[in-house]
Amino acid sequence: RIIFLDTSFPRYLYQGVLSGFPEPIYLVYPSGHSSSWKVEAISKSPGIMESRKPFPSKWYGIVNDSLKGKEIVGIDGVLFVHNNGFLANLDTKEHAIEFAEKALLN
Considering the entire predicted model, what is its pTM? Predict the structure, then answer.
């Protein structure tokens, strides 16, 4: 349900492949621009932007506010959650994994 990559790749490469399989829900991978880690929801199918399981809507819109992230999500290290709930940025790999696991259960 959660796929892990140790290298950042262009979005079109992994979304096109992973959305072709029924199992993947989230992808955890390093940011290509900093030491942070990303969690991304997998698309329902290739060529469709709609996520299989967006993050819980109450998590949407967190921006550079670790206190708000801790309060709303319940974990440390939340740096950003996209307004559409398909992408999140966290400070460490461990926090990214915890975020994906928690999202999967919600």
Answer: 0.91
